[in-house]
Amino acid sequence: MAMFSTLVRRRAPGPLTPVREADLPERIRLDLPLRFEAVGEALWRDARGTVRPASTVGLIGACTVVGRDVARDGAALGEALSGLRTTYDLVLGTPPAFEAAEALSVAWSEATLAYLHDLSCEDPLTGLASLAHVRTRLDEVYREAELTDVSVPGSHALVVVELCFRGATHVPGHTFTRALRLVQVAETLRAVWSGGQTLGRLGLDRAVAVVPRSADLGLSVSLLRDFLSDLDLGETDVRVWIEGLPGSAESARLLLGELVR
Fold it and tell me: Which bin fits 196, alpha (ψ -120 to 50), beta or left (φ > 0)?
């Protein structure tokens, strides 16, 4: 992006003097749709060359944050895109760039799907249980433990599978590729644990199995690793580990939250 300065005229006593307007003017800021201030600021900086070409990443990042936030506010995708269009019109007087609209739409979709998955029992793509269902299953395990002399840390554990992508995460189609990889992981988990164990999804790139701490748990995890190594996962590394469960249901819920992040 070429670097250039834009000169504007401010009213002042005497002759009008050209000055650099580095910050988004307050008159524009006040007219921006709710939550779109960061996008407006990024557009203003880019248009005036006050930052280097890497500022494009800042704009896309701002659109991603806004898309996620407005989805959590309950706004429809049409409202979100309308807000982006209004912001572009106020700041630049142009329609939104495709990259900005795409970033906002993808973030809105992911946040909305995450919310829906939290409400339902099963992820429709992978067939893995939702995070809410995994929480419910763990609560059941802790309630059952109260009726016995065996503690949950000694009776159950989590087996976590994480996909680590070596390629860039912003390339076209990458989100779909990640989803397909997790589908393969889900099928492999079912091949190892088919006896009614809870198999769930933790975020975009992790899956979990709630399993008994039996004598053959280590063997099952080793078999899982062997099956995963036979998959064609492209530029993807796979981590598998056994995560011990804490002594209380509340601590287990906190643990799940950490694993999702």
Answer: left
0.90 surpassed by pTM:
no
Non-local (6+) Cβ contacts of 22 within 8 A are 45, 48, 50
Q: Which tens digits make up the pLDDT trace of 110-124?
A: 888 777 666 556 776
Q: Is 20 exposed, middle or buried (0-12, 13-18, 19+ CB in 10 A)?
A: exposed
> Residues of 193-232 as b/e, b for ≥16 C-beta within 10 angstroms?
beeebbbbbbebbbbbbbbeeeeeeeebbeebeebbeeee
CA pair distance 201, 214, nearest whole angstrom: 23
Going along the chain from its start, the domains and CATH numbers come out as 7-117 (no CATH), 120-260 (3.30.70.270)
DSSP for residue 26? H
pLDDT at 179: 78
By the 8 A CB rule, do 53 and 1 touch?
Answer: yes
Alpha-carbon distance of 123 to 200, in angstroms, equals 8
Element (H, E) at 37: helix 37-47
